[in-house]
């Protein structure tokens, strides 16, 4: 009989200790050391382990002789999902889709399975559910309109049985919902622990690479928003996708944190509806849907760039007199530290007194970005609210603001201006040095500025002209 021993393993980083500890000495997380019962194996490898290593061993080849065939991608038929993957899935690709409960991970995977089943009829697809019964999965599929004979359902959490079904069905696409519910029969720890998640993911990775099957693993996130389970899980897989919510849970944003076969700066936008997740193709119209065309103090539109997609966003600012000794500074959707730097630059170069005022800066729609091209819009929104001077609604602001008050270059300015012109804006406030570099006019009246003072003068003069007219 095998000897058993107890270990206390951190569920955040995988650090193990022989005794319980309140704080993990490796990642400094509190109350994450969970007891696990493991088998005390000898140092020598067992016969099964030795055969497994021999089976998956590789031969040494020269770099020039190594195969370098072009990747054969299969589009999922969902444009927003393909945009994130780089055009489609690759044979042998293992992807991890993480997100909070109820955000739509299972719904998206069923829609992807239905679309791929239609594009490759007759080729088996295996959907493994470890959380729901077959009746629940079937009911959701019927609601989404997913009906295909090539999609096979399996309600199982035993990894050995799952791999046995995979060897019989030989699917080219495997969806596992979720990886935290599956357990390895050779490990005595409970499902979801570090050892279980790591070993199950490693076994599925070996199966995918040896058969060129595409694998999607669904995972949960913690209350802090990080992936539940060991960090090594993100290193094992090829692609890590995170589902997040924006705009009062109406909008689902899919981001790529890691992608060996595509970009990591693209985002996919979905809207949850009665028929499942619907693609949001026109992101600019979605984020500016509440604009009524009337100018108001503290509202300034700008154009951000997520990967290759330009999106019109609206920066809102509110400046009010404070009742407390220390004024408050809050930012939603923008980096707070960056906003504090911009406020300091405005106090220095525009002589704007903010030491007795609370400043709140927000990005309308709940989107979160880190694009420095929105700096100029944030500064002018604060200035507009502080001086109660509304900015004309046909203006759009683009520019990075430095510590010395200069307005710097904006990458892909022409692409951003085309998006603004398509949305109906008439004038754009841009860095002066970038106007000469434009290959053609984007259909907007361009006003070039070199610093914050020039930008404030141009905006305030336009505001006065609009109020007089």
Please provide a written account of the structure.
The protein has 469 residues and is an alpha/beta fold. The protein has 3 domains: 39 residues; 209 residues, 3-Layer(aba) Sandwich (Rossmann fold); 183 residues, 2-Layer Sandwich (Ribosomal Protein S5, domain 2), CATH 3.30.230.10. Helix content is 29%, strand content 25%. The chain contains 13 helices and 21 strands. The protein has a 9-stranded mixed beta sheet, sandwiched between helices. A 4-stranded mixed beta sheet has the order 13-14-16-15. Helix 6 links the parallel strand 7 and strand 8. Helix 9 packs across helix 10 and helix 10 packs across helix 13. It is globular. 36% of the residues are buried. About 1% of the residues have low confidence.
In short:
Helices cover 29% and strands 25% of the residues. It is α/β, with parallel strands linked by helices.
CATH class of the largest domain: Alpha Beta
Report the helical percentage.
25-40%
Low-confidence stretches: 52-57
Number of helices: 13
Taking the sheet with the most strands, its summary is: 9 strands, mixed
Please identify the structural class as seen in this structure.
alpha/beta
**Rg over CA atoms:** 27 Å
Examine the secondary-structure arrangement and name the CATH architecture of the largest domain. Answer: 3-Layer(aba) Sandwich
Total strand count, please?
A: 21
Q: Roughly what is the average pLDDT, rounded to an integer?
A: 85
Distance between the termini: 91 Å
Strand order of the largest sheet: 6-5-7-8-4-9-10-11-12
Question: Beta-strand percentage?
Answer: 25-35%
General form: globular
Counting structural domains, the number is 3
CATH-assigned homologous superfamily of the largest domain: P-loop containing nucleotide triphosphate hydrolases
| Named CATH topology of the largest domain | Rossmann fold
